[in-house]
Design brief:
The complex is a heterodimer of chains A (397) and B (434). Chain A has a six-stranded mixed β-sheet with strand order 12-11-10-13-14-15, sandwiched between helices. Chain A is built from twelve helices and 15 strands. Chain A is an alpha/beta fold and 397 residues long. In chain A, strand 7 and strand 8 form a beta hairpin. The longest helix of chain A is centred in the middle third of the chain and has 21 residues. Chain B has 434 residues and is α/β, with parallel strands linked by helices. In chain B, a hairpin with a 5-residue loop joins strand 6 and strand 7. The longest helix of chain B has 22 residues. Chain B is globular, with a radius of gyration of 24 Å. The chains are: A alpha/beta (397), B alpha/beta (434). Chains A and B meet through strand 1, helix 1, strand 3 and strand 4 of A and helix 1, strand 1, helix 2, helix 3 and helix 6 of B.
């Protein structure tokens, strides 16, 4: 009885189908867990092609397993000298730092995959299934600008638009015809043909006016960095800004960002300072809004730029400043495609009693181009985003 | 490292077969298939089955193994053999010749074990390959059926996989529960006083075959759903003996390859690397139990203490648990340097007992609690309530269920059963209902 040998009959790549199904599930998990991911990445300075590795929780296959009151386990000591009561290593701790879920928790068999995606793909996952019906069109309405474009030739026109080439062609045509008919005069002195340009030869470049949507957007990210804005709040704000940035960027050819941090005064800063800025001082909103309006008018003419402004704050403001803030916001609102205000109030951080939250004061402003959202915890980031851009959710609220 | 040809393999196989017979082994003929690394991983993802139904979890398994090998977290796959008649085994062409020889001898050991160990008596090794093939065809047809579709099939398989270990553990042929219950009813007509099977009375005794119970009595299941459940159930029955004999199976195969290769007239350039690989396979994994290590050690000791005949007998009648109960002595515990440990406060692991005079028996008990199917909680169907609610019980042995997992699994069982499901277990020494 000998054995039989044969070459394995390859049925192509047999697990390909199951792998792609698995990949789809991972993508879904990626999307569901997105708020865990976005906070770690720098918002800009990435060209969209940059690959980021994202730890994604494995698609778990649950079974009945033994749990917490783990009875003793047995193991082999190899060559080591093992004594009773000897300490032999630490159980893995759970609750790793934010945004660092790449270490396994102590739940049995936490699985993590590193999925490598580009920022573009990430944005695609994020927004692929987002239903953005009516509101998107309005919120993302494009501004129509007049553009001048050359379009053919005409026999009338102004001198500067004279096309020498086309005019010369016309003369040649006429000359050929005249030669056939023998109508060309010959200069008796030189023996050359005399055939000058005439008015009818001249051709002028025609310029047509076309209407083209402007495909550039500018986003003002405004954040309260006063004393009450804790690290946790900023972290939430950052996740939120990331989503907004990725989304708007995916809709326009060109996107510019202005970071404006404020306490009682506005400071235009770069991204790093924006999120890293030390906190301190009180809060006054109106000077900042004023500043944004001024900058927008100066640098990003609302007629040719799609303006967006998003303000993240914990809702504090000087009560004496409230009236002016509302006024300024009316102006800013009218300039923007969408102006969003997001109030960040983590569950475990109590607001100062007695002060009015901006979100309450802003209620009067709320309409299609002014949105108010709330973030209490990480999972709200995505919900809040949908409040801003998807109509379904906002109606529910 | 020289690549091997089929002719080389045949040459060595002839000698291995001779030696195997001399060692009184009686095995299913082995059909070796040579393959490359990718095909090997592909086969591994489907437990070595030449055909197997599709499910995303096998894609996941492939990716995981692929990543592990790429990162060098695990050695290259050595052997892969399935319990079928003839046994199908895979030889990876990338492996050097000495390793192929080792693997072939190892496979003879496995094949002999499959054929002779009593736990495998009902696995129907001769039909497993066509069974899997038909299962794949059927599941594919459900996926392609426009009235069913991949989402529904997939979620049902997800659910079935969640309780696929919940089948009876002792060796038995896959039963027809309805017939069994009917026979029971006939025998107990007087006490039951019913003239036909009534779901409210079932099961008459604790039913460990949850999938089987759902497939036959699930109140509102479609035919295709019953079939999918049966497919997963059939595979669960098929694999349960392998779960219960991992240590013996590997130990037996190691014993055979070790002795066969030592008896083979191996050239020097094969012999040293063979010893190296062998030692690699049977080395202790510190802090854990390496089944190859433990099984090989015990079988060697049995041969030493009681002779080869006893070893042949042991491979026939035991499972891991009974095997260790019977043969693991204090001397072995000490030699293997076994110890028990548990997590104390703050997650600090501490050694509880070592294999000395006072400790070894405790260590042995702990070991037995974690081998074979003992690491899987035992759940059984206790009954069906009037509202068609399925009542499950957990056989509590001092170890609590991980509730987060259990809740997820409960959702899966509800998907299968189609009605509410309750599970009764013990948490913090008090009954707990899920």
């Amino acid at each position: 009885m000998g054995s039989v040998f044969s070459h394995h009959r390859t049925n192509a790549d047999r697990s390909a189908r199951d792998r792609s199904r698995h990949k789809q599930k991972i993508e879904k998990a990626l999307k569901d867990g997105i708020h865990d991911i976005v906070a770690d990445e720098s918002i800009i300075g990435q060209d969209g092609k940059k690959k980021i590795r994202i730890p994604v929780k494995g698609i778990k296959e649950y079974k009945f397993v033994y749990g917490k009151n783990q009875q003793p386990q047995a193991g082999s000591g190899g060559d080591a000298d093992v004594q009773r009561g000897q300490k032999i290593g630490q159980k893995k701790k759970k609750g790793q730092g934010q945004g660092k879920p790449n270490k396994a928790g102590d739940k049995p068999g936490e699985e993590y995959y590193d999925v490598e995606v580009t920022l573009e793909e990430l944005a695609e996952y994020l927004f692929k299934d987002l239903e953005l019906p009516d509101l998107e069109q309005k919120a993302l309405k494009e501004i129509i600008a007049e553009k001048f474009k050359r379009k053919g030739y005409r026999s009338d026109g102004i001198r500067p638009r004279l096309s020498k080439k086309e005019s010369a062609k016309q003369r040649i045509k006429r000359k050929m015809a005249a030669r056939k008919q023998g109508k060309i005069k010959i200069d008796p002195e030189t023996g050359e043909e005399i055939f000058p340009f005439i008015e009818q030869d001249l051709r002028y470049k025609h310029i047509a006016v076309t209407k083209k949507p402007v495909s550039s957007a500018c986003i003002f990210f405004i954040m309260d960095v006063s004393g009450s804005m804790t690290q946790n709040k900023k972290y939430l704000a950052r996740s939120f800004f990331f989503l907004l940035y990725q989304f708007i960027r995916s809709r326009y050819e060109k996107t510019e960002i202005v970071f404006v941090a404020h306490d009682t005064q506005p400071y235009e800063v770069d991204e790093e300072k924006f999120f890293g800025r030390g906190t301190g001082g009180g809060t006054k909103v109106s000077p900042t809004i004023e500043y944004v309006i001024e900058q927008a008018n100066k640098r990003y003419n609302p007629n040719s730029w799609n303006l967006y402004a998003f303000h993240c704050s914990d809702g504090d403001n000087w009560s004496s400043d409230m009236e002016k803030t509302i006024q300024q916001n009316e102006i800013l609102k009218s300039m923007c495609q969408l102006y969003g205000y997001c109030e960040i109030t983590p569950h475990d951080e109590i607001r100062w009693a007695g002060s009015t939250a901006l979100s309450e004061a802003y209620e009067v402003l709320e309409d299609k181009s002014f949105k108010v959202g709330h973030i209490h915890e990480k999972s709200d980031v995505w919900k809040c985003f949908k409040t801003f851009f998807g109509s379904k959710i906002s109606l529910e609220k | 490292m020289s690549k091997c040809t089929l002719k080389d393999l045949q040459f060595w196989d002839d000698q291995i077969v001779e030696l195997g017979k001399k060692r009184q082994l009686d095995w299913y003929e082995i059909a070796y298939e040579t393959c490359d690394y990718h095909e090997m991983l592909g086969a591994m993802a489907y437990h070595g089955m030449p055909t197997h139904y599709n499910h995303w979890s096998y894609g996941k398994s492939f990716e995981q193994q692929h990543t592990h090998y790429q990162l060098g977290m695990t050695g290259l796959p050595y052997e892969l053999i399935i319990n079928s008649d003839p046994c199908i085994a895979y030889l990876m062409l990338e492996n050097p010749m000495y390793l192929q020889i080792l693997i072939m001898a190892h496979c003879v050991g496995h094949s002999d074990f499959f054929k002779n160990n009593r736990n495998f008596a009902f696995t129907r090794a001769d039909t497993v390959v066509p069974r899997m093939r038909h299962a794949k065809k059927r599941i594919n047809s459900y996926i392609e059926d426009p009235n069913i579709g991949i989402e529904r099939v997939e979620s049902l398989i997800d659910a079935c996989h969640a309780i696929s270990y919940q089948v009876p553990r002792y060796p038995m042929d896959i039963p027809n529960l309805e017939e069994n219950y009917e026979i029971f009813r006939q025998k107990n007509l007087q006490s039951l006083k019913k003239n036909k099977l009534d779901l409210k009375d079932l099961p008459y005794e604790p039913e460990y075959d949850i999938l089987g119970f759902c497939a036959e009595f699930g109140p509102d299941l479609d035919d295709w759903e019953r079939d999918v459940i049966q497919i997963v159930r059939d595979e669960a029955y098929y694999f349960m003996p392998q779960i219960r004999t991992k240590i013996m199976n590997e130990g037996w195969a190691c014993l055979q390859h070790y002795n066969i290769l030592n008896e083979l007239d191996l050239p020097q350039e094969y012999h040293i690397p063979f010893l190296k690989s062998h030692n690699q396979v049977v080395r202790p994994h510190v802090g854990r139990i390496n089944p190859y290590h433990l099984g090989f050690h015990l079988f060697q000791k049995i041969v030493e203490r009681h002779g080869y005949e006893e070893a042949l007998l042991a491979r026939e009648v035991h499972n891991d648990e009974s095997f260790i109960r019977q043969y693991l002595t204090r001397e072995d515990c000490e030699e293997l340097n076994l110890f028990s440990f548990s997590a104390k406060d703050h997650g600090q692991y501490e050694v509880d007992d070592v294999s000395d005079n006072q400790g070894w028996e405790e260590v042995k008990e702990v070991l037995i609690g974690q081998i074979g199917a003992n690491s899987i909680p035992t759940i059984y169907v206790d009954g069906v309530s009037r509202r068609n609610e399925l009542v499950l019980h957990h056989e509590y042995d001092g170890r609590e269920l991980e509730l987060q997992y259990a809740r997820q699994v409960m959702g899966h069982i509800e998907r299968i059963w189609g009605h509410d499901v309750t599970l009764i277990t013990i948490i913090d020494d008090a009954p707990y209902e899920l």
